[in-house]
Amino acid sequence: MTEVHVRLGAREVLRGLNLALKQGEIFALLGRNGTGKTTLMRLLTGQLRPASGDVQVFGGDPGREAAPRRLMSLVPQDIALYPRLTVRENLEIMAGMAGLAKREISSRVAEAMALVQVEGRQRDLIDHLSGGYKRRANIAAALLTRPRLLLLDEPTVGVDVDARLSLHRTLRRLRDQGMSILLTTHDLDEARALADRIGILASGRMAEEGPVGDILRRMFGDRREVVVTLSQEPGDTVRSTLERLGFAPTANPLEWTSWSAGVEGFASLPAALRRQGIDLHEISLREPGLEHVLAHVEGTRS
Q1: Segment holding 29, helix H or strand E
Q2: pLDDT digits (tens, 9 = 90+) for 91-111
Q3: Are 17 and 36 in contact (CB under 8 A)?
Q4: pTM of the prediction?
Q5: 104 close to 62: Cβ distance less than 8 angstroms
Q6: Which of 118, 127, 163, 175 has the smallest number of CB atoms closer than 10 Å to its CB?
Q7: Domains and CATH numbers, the chain
């Protein structure tokens, strides 16, 4: 995508968006609701055309040409399977709907089930599967056409930790086989653990993009978050003192934070705060993470 603009009614949803995916990578797209994640997916699948700018998928325009659309598959957030049919029956129907020849269907279904490891549940009704296995079957349906690009909308929402980790292993296997994967997620732990690169959408633009470690170094350098936990809720005098020292309150009235370059002087900070009449329960240093990146991006774009 190059300098893509999309307007829906009076609202400009995407404003000069640029994005390039690499072969064999997992790219996680983050952002508040309404920042354009769904719009971006619709552009890639050809359901929507930009007002200006260029959208290219494997050298073709998915809004005008069928060829690039045949090279990708979308896994929706909702389970798009028939609940009263088995896993195999669903996949056989989906394979036929995708236009696969009858002689290919059985082998493609077996291949897709093996990729997501649902062969052992192929005769179970979708209704009888756990949330994690339903997600796997949902992904299997998208793999029937052997896509080069897999698009996933919130792929692990509503599943337990074990199922999420299993799905992560599945996606990594697909990536290692050369597939490009673009997923949207609100789960910061998922993005941090799974993605080779992340992108953060804000105000219709890609506010940050790259490997998580690179973004953190670029944004925070050697700074660490100083977290002060008070023994009791502060009065006006203590609040004023903390604000004068550069601390800001959090949602927890007992917790205040500031940023410090490196760790020099940290050991002497508790005594210095107590001399100011501040009754400390605990003080600690916190490494910056994706939650800090999002807070920074949303703060500067609001």
Answers
A1: strand 26-30
A2: 999 999 999 999 999 999 999
A3: yes
A4: 0.85
A5: no
A6: 127
A7: 4-210 (3.40.50.300), 220-300 (3.30.70)
